[in-house]
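Sample log: NFX1-type zinc finger-containing protein 1.
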Amino acid sequence: MHNDAANNENVSQAAFRTWRYLVPTNTSVTTHLGFKLPQFFQQALDLINGDPGTRQEVISKLASEGGLQRIHELISQDMKSLPEPRQREVFSTQILPFFCSISHPSVLASAVLEQSVGTIFNFLFGIHGQRAIKLFDAIVSLLFSPIPDHGSSSLVGERQMTAVTAVLSKIVDVNGTAQVIEPFHPIVEALSHILEKPFASGQDMSMYQAKKHLRRVQQRLSLGRTMPHSQLATNADLFKPTFTVDRDPPGTLSNQGRRHDNDSQNICDIRIMPTSQEFQSSRMEYLPLNDPDQLHLPGLHGLLDRQFRLVREDTIGQLRDAVRHEFEHLRTEGPATQLLKQHRARVYTYYGVAVTDFAVDRWKGLEFAVGFEQPAIVRNLSPKERREWWEASKRLKGDSLVCLLDSESSVVFCSVSQQREARAPTHKKMGETLQSKLPLSESWNLYGDSDTAYVVLHLVNLDLSNVSQLFDWYLSGFKTGRRALVEFPGVLLPSFQPTLLALQGMIKTADLPFAELIAPTTASSPDLIELPAPAYTTKEGFRFDLRSVMSSGETSSLDESQAGALVDALSRGLALIQGPPGTGKSYTGVALIKVLLDSKAEADLGPIVCVCYTNHALDQLLEYLVDHQVTQIVRIGSRSKSEKLQSLNLRLVVQQMEPTKMEKHRRWELNNSLNDEEEEIRGLVARLTDVASWGTIKEHLRVHWPRQHNQLFGEEDEDGFKIVHHHPERIIEDWLRRCSKYSTLRRPRPLSQLQYSQLESMSASESRTLHQSWIFEVKNDLQQNLLIAYSSYEHRKTSLNQLQNELSLRCLQHANAKVLVCEEAGEVLEAHILTALLPSVEHAILIGDHLQLRPKIQNYDLSQESLRGAKYSLDTSLFERLVEPKLTNVKRLPFSTLSVQRRMHPSIAALVKDTLYLKLTDHPSVQTYLVVPGVSKRLFWLDHSEPETGLDPQQMTTISYTNDFELKMTAALVSHLVRQGVYKISDIAVLTPYLGQLRKLKKRLVGSFEIVINDLDLEELEREGEQVPQNSPTTPVSKTTLLQTLKVATVDNFQGNEAEVVVISLVRSNDQNRTGFLKTSNRINVLLSRAKHGMYILGNTKTYSTVPMWAKVISILEQGGHVGPSVCGENCPSAEMCQTCGSDRVKSMQVDFISFDVYKDIDLNEDPCIFPACGHTMTVSNMDGIMEMHDFYEFSPDGHITALKSSSEPFSAAAMKSCPNCRGSLRDIARYGRIVRRALLDESTKKFIVWANKEYVTLGRLLATEQDKLADSIEGAVVPSSPVPGSDISITGIRDQQIKLIRKLKYHGGYKVILGLRQAIRQYCAKAHQEEQTFQRVRSMVEAARQRLPTTGDFEFDSSVLQTRVVNHPSNPDEFRIYAGRDGFY
């Protein structure tokens, strides 16, 4: 394949060399192609459709002087003067190929060709748009004119109209003045009229792209008509505020004027990071409401404006408050002890700040080292200890957001550069690192110096004023001014800056797919609306290939609701699928992607964009696709932990791609230029550190003040004698010393006079003033030169980055994607979905559940849960807004719902089915789950009233509650479940709503289990300053069997995950019944729907019953007997049995009869105690031995029960165990209940067998005797008379009827005894019937209980148990036999 590609490239290059001969190189002589012009443009189109390198060279040639001459030859033809057939020929063979070439998606998306494309479109536009107007006016006239015998224009096709409108749209985009040029309006109106007409020859083709391009042009021109003729207004200036409530609008729309220099009605003018004025402003920022009628912009513009402002406030707002407080501290020089408590954002502040060094990095740009005072806690530590402290603290990690500020209100935002390993903890002099060309991190680090820590930063935004400020701080060193370095832990610029920049770009273009559905401009009825099909599906004959979702023949691999959702999603341009917990959202999403991939070629879909909320979710989705033989996958983003996807990462894929010849040459040029400019910057910085040296000042005077230079450094005096300077470095110093000897009473002259005065006539103060002015001029000149050099450097670096992006775009086929699939859409911020909707998208599929977690935001006052934030509702996802709009005048879009859950046991699923998902059903597979061993129920709420511990003292700024009682119970329950030997620790998950409880759970459990905390919880813990090791390095070796991965997570970060058994610590328990986070049904829903086999909740029912959904859940649990104080089935001991606070009598009880240990000496975590009803406490190990548990259970080597033994012998009454102290029953101890009850059953069965055998023998003997008597009486028998005179005796019918007739005979007395014996035998059979036997009666009671409380699985007795059976004789139903044995139950 590689050879084929190389051959194709060679052929393409050969064709290009032939084509370029048609491009003139000497443009001073005009040459025309004439009849070769169609060939020229058609060959150009063919080459552009070929390999990327040739495409770039063709466009570059067209943008050259010779290429523009060929374009001029094309558009200068007077089309209207030509005959119509000739006009059509020119359009089809020249204009259309040219338009297709310059509007090719790969051309418009190329960063390398951006300048060339701009040149071509600017040329087409001409002076005041005259070229474009003339060309398009002729094209429109031609398209309107019908062909004879056709009745309509055959030129009006999808290809033609798409090319024409695409070129027109690009011309208007590139040339802003086109918006106010009136002749463009009739052209656009005519094109719109053409697109509205029916197509010729019965064509049924989609004009989606053409209409889309034209709508974009119409939007831009409509803006222009509202602009004043003297100037171009911004988009936001076109609309006036129409507030119906008293609100202060943004920017100049406010009656009070702008709040500060970063307040504007146009978000494009708002800088992402706050400005100094913004920090100091006391007025509230303008925050748009969630009601479109209350926005200052309508429709799509209003939506984008609202999202930008709220997302920015959510991230920047809290930082702004923190920095404002620090400004006040720097000005007042007061204590900062309350700093962390007076605003929400957690910050670390460092003082004594100075900029110490600079360097230029090829990828990061300008880097600089900043020194600050070491925290007091590490100053007396060794370098090794200081290093360990900094690494453990997680402070100043790579990419962390920080800002530098001073008491003069200057502020510069920066990011921490990724630190490399320093070769030695040495610290260079100012500028020395720049000269040595070493990375700054090899010279400056946090731990090398006991007094000063150093960190390497780079600027967030390229702003020359920021660079200038850095140079000022650099020159002033540590001694001048009060400065601070403020760190915002956990705040990463890439998490919000790209989104905000994208929103700014989108409001400029106003190009968003499905804009009329997402941001309607007109009020609508609340009824559902019909969603149009994806544009690409409207082509004649198009059909989706569904073979990938068919398991065999015509049988689908999807259930009915999944299949319905798939069909709906494929037939709607904007498709919404709600997936309740466990219904297979991801499975349905994968099925959709497979169908789309199978139809990709026919529909020309381009790449399918898959968006997920978390890296983990994206990895899962892509791994599933890989496992199902989907190979063409590229993963964007570097935070994947999947080994299977490593080779599919965009960065690695791009590295394997070959740059084009133009790209290689351009990269070589840029790297050479960057090398030169790096050397220039190094030299300027080196000079900047030496601005006061005599050599620097001498050179400055020579250039700018030659008269003063000659006075100091001249080689001749006034008399013409030659002056010899033995120590030229002392000349300026000697001059200042001489002037200091002169004393004068005159007032010092101003600098303007001194600059032209004799140097020797100056006083001490005058000479110092002049000398300082020279230094200031030198510094100012150097700074200006540095800014110019750095600006040029950044421009070339940006071009180099664009080259790299060009390869990425090519790898993604220029991202001309028509389909976007978003998983967990209910958890994704609307702004993130909007920015992911590329203009090319024709089909968006959002899969989520608005009843589960909402998007996570930082500022609670912007959320639906907050009373103040409900009017903003930033955490309302686009998915929720479309399927469940809160406003009455907004339409609800149709959506599909998956209805069969395959995760939870029915008893667990009922908690969400009966409260939220009334139509949700259970798949049969969940009926077969095994019971959870070691506990009495698979679903249980362990109710308690132990109070919460309030705010976690380790949390300085974040509200985080804990509950120590639940902490202990959770640890004990997890250990108990694992000890049953059925579930691995990786099958169990521990959930809690609070980060403080998570922290304590981690510390409590890490000694026994290997704890796994997901990435999101790790980030939150680290944001709070927590050191989070994945494993405990001191885990005891004796616990290796428990060292498996226990999942511990907060509720918010466990959505999309599941576990066989889930243990939940609710934490909150208070008299005020405050439930905190868990008052919303969304979180409750997620919490209750993670478990498959078993779920155990630890919490205070009284506290949580005040929440409506919790009240319903608790009611359901109480009705089923699933609420109580004991989850394991054992009765909890009374408080007096507490090992810590119990009486001396309790503590001194002997609980082990082998080692004679007393209660207070027992480690209950290692060897728990049991508490029978009789009151005699014993250790489990002691009682297990007495009960001979090893005779009935299989044990693992470490002492855990793993299974029942299959050949346990029956008990006898004498062998049945009891309390060794009082012989009391142990039936109330669940651990031994099976053995005790088995013993009772066996004893009852043996008693039954003894009775049955005794009765059987007695009856058998009587029967034999009566049979003998009956035989002996035959010879002397008298024939009885018939009851009916004159008739024979006939004994017929069933046996009971025969006996009845015998009783009616005159001489029936001879049968009295035997008939009585028969009755006795019948009574015996009834008593010995299997339904009356002990085991069968127990079975009947169990089955009755199972019917009252529905459960799953089959119930059968072990075939080895001792039972009695009564069978009938095979040939004689009245003959029976009794058998006693252990071979089954009958």
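Observation: The chain has a mean pLDDT of 81.
Observation: DSSP finds 44 helices and 29 strands in the chain.
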